[in-house]
Amino acid sequence: MTPLIPMAGKPLLSINDMSIVFTSPDEPDIEAVRQVDLTLTPGKTLALVGESGCGKSVTARAVLRLLDKNADIRTGEIVYEAEGGAVDVVRLKPDSLAMRAIRGAQISMIFQEPMSSLSPVHTIGNQIDEIIVLHERLTQKQARERTVSLLDQVGIPGARERANAYPFELSGGLRQRAMIAMALACTPKLLIADEPTTALDVTTQAQILDLLRQLQDDFGMAMLFITHDLGVVAEVADDIAVMYLGDVVEQGDVFEVFKAPKHPYTQALMSSVPRLQRKSERTRLTPIKGTVPSPKDRPVGCAFTSRCPHAFAPCPTIRPERTPVSEGHVARCHLLTHTKEEALA
Amino acid sequence: MTTLLSVEHLSKVFTLGGGLFKEGRELVALNDINLTVEAGETLAIVGESGCGKTTLGRCIIKAQPVSDGHVYYHKAGGEKVELTSLDKKAIKPYRRDIRMIFQDPMSSLNPNMRVFDIVAEPLRVHKICKGRELEDRVISTLAKVGIPADAVGRYPHAFSGGQRQRIGIARALVLDPKLVIADEAVSALDVSIQAQVLNLLDDLKEEFGLTYIFISHDLGVVNYIADRVVVMYLGHVVENAPTEMLFERPRHPYTEMLLEALPIADPTRRKGRNKELKGEIPYLGNRPKGCPFHTRCKYAEDRCRTEKPVLRPIRGTAQEAACHFAEILELKGAYDAPGFVPAPTLVDAGGLPALGSSPRVAGQ
Q1: Cβ contacts of A255 on chain B, cutoff 8 Å
Q2: What is the Cα–Cα distance from B76 to B39, expressed in whole angstroms?
């Protein structure tokens, strides 16, 4: 199968300087996402990594404008290169026709827990038909044909019969496959996968990762893959973006970032994962000291200051710039722009 | 080393449904489990969800009654006590020696109790000390796991996930146990916090001379912490081996499959597509005849479909496996070969830039 979209270096979606604030009537505002810049290209997978609460899911939902009512995208833009020209998703109303034409058809999403994101009272076939009929001029019958071939493509055995199954009748792996079939129903150009394998066992996880890779080859779509598991990142990603407390602190080619992480948080994250080594080579883990502070205690400067072993004078007050390290590899850290003497002073 | 705990022919059968006149269906969660735990070792029990690893942990301390078989605890003097035959009252003193840490730190701490009382409760229940002495002991145990003394009056909700897990650990350790059963103790934690807790468990083991049964599904963590690994599949032990041997050359095809599926945090060791990983764990009530794993095993032959293999020692190694062909099969381990160089085809296929001179040192 030839890719439907030619592989090109041109970005499909770029998020520039986005911040998202959650408001509450009786508490001060919380800036869950402070500064996010991401670029997605067709045929490539960008893995967005971070610990719980760092804002990675909120970022993904913002792209589809699926945020709760009390969330507000304060600054920044999300530029999507649609067929008719570039669209700033931030300027669209979440329930407008234009947004609904994009959501599910051109950009679609796989959610973490298939059991709670599929409707329990509709068969999976009906749920997938609905999307197809909604976005394309097809009859119910034609839609079902497409649904069956999709279910077949994602590796559900006996697709025609299984289309009539309810989610509870399927195992976790099959449910996630049905979820993927649904996301692919209208051949999206961008697929957002929010922890698609976290709830699954390792052998099932490996199968789903294989499937996603294969589908990406077939359809040529861009993929934003959200995960907290560095093993999964190493397995699927072309590029990696590391988030910490609402900021993207480092972004670059996956091989390069794993080989030479530049931001102290990325370095610390990588050294806290146990490596698969023989006992003789094994070293004690070096965890990051302390815990993630709440967004309201975040310093004005670099968010990682309170836990960073290298923090020095400008860190708490001045926000580090995006500093290019090599081609396509950027990090936000003062150590990259200051000399060693300044850092030690 | 001396044996601390031995499990012999342990089985656990759950009965489903049924009624006054209708026979319930039987679900065999554990099938003839045999294993021993040596004093001072960390024994990991691994397997996918539903394989019975948690049930086994719970059966050991009789948190659940067993259906058949025996669990023996070897006391300091060499005396052997059969825990499975003891009643609720008689087993109480042994619950001081064998303690449990639970998976989800939020749901295993009583939200209505202050941290001090959570950790003091085992001391009160076992009537070990009271008053000033109790206070000192609770506070010093909490200090060992990194909870400061001024935080003991707070409720669990005021703590982060990692801190809550530390409180759970303190509650297990306050009675000065010999054996700690940690059931997925780090699974719910973020990686940076997970590393803290793993190091803490390591330190405490040294300080108190503990023995761990570490129940986990994460083979990366198991490789780091365990001395010996028991692999379970559908209520059976399929392999029991020292960690390094198991990861170097597994002797059961299921272990190979688990290692194959394990994502490694190093893109230069990317595994790529694998057609051989197939199928899902069958439903427990629907266990295949013969070898429980034959439906997913790529090496399965006719013998596997009819004759059930038993767990047996593999000659020439310290490993035990339940596979008819354990000696013959050349199964693949998870460690990279010395001087490992990634296949050039992988680099080409992904359109990725060529690697530098030392491809192995990713992320160090």
Answers
A1: 267-268, 352-353, 355, 362
A2: 10
Domain-located, residue A157: yes
Residue A268 belongs to a domain: yes
DSSP B352: P
Handedness of CA A240, A214, A150, B48 (dihedral sign): negative
Query: Which residue from B231, B198, B208 is spatially nearest to B40, judged by alpha carbons?
Result: B208
Q: Least CA distance to B274: which residue of chain A?
A: A210
Residues B86, B62: contact at Cβ < 8 Å? yes
Confidence (pLDDT) at A26? 85
What angle separates helix A124-135 from helix A172-183, to the nearest 10 degrees? 10
Last residue of a domain, one of A185, A210, A240: A185
Candidate from A185-189, A273-277, B291-295 with smallest mean pLDDT = A273-277
If you count residue pairs, one on A and one on B, with CB atoms under 8 Å apart, how many are there?
158
Of A185, A201, A225, the last residue of a domain is A185
A142 CA: distance to closest CA in chain B (Å): 30
Q: Which two tokens stand for residue A195?
A: 């922890």
Domain ranges of chain B: 3-16+42-226, 253-335
Is A110 in a helix, a strand, or coil?
strand
Q: Is A107 inside a domain boundary?
A: no
**Residue A298 sits in which domain range?**
260-344
The string of DSSP letters for A162-222 reads HTT--GGGS-HHHHHHHHHHHHTTT--SEEEEESTTTTS-HHHHHHHHHHHHHHHHHH--E
pLDDT in tens, A259-298: 999 999 999 999 888 888 888 888 888 888 888 888 888 8
**Based on the structure, what is the number of domains in chain A?**
2
Cα(B268)–Cα(A41) distance, integer angstroms: 22
Taking contacts as CB-CB distances below 8 angstroms, the residues of chain B near A277 are 223, 335
Query: With contact defined as beta carbons under 8 Å apart, do B232 and B53 qualify?
Result: yes
| Phi, then psi, of B49 in degrees rounded to 5 | -60, 140
The pTM is what? Answer: 0.86
Residue A69 lies in a domain: no
Q: Which of A228, A235, A237 sits opposite B191 (nearest CB)?
A: A228
- What average pLDDT does the segment A64-69 reach? 91
Q: What's the topology of domain B3-16+42-226?
A: Rossmann fold (3.40.50)
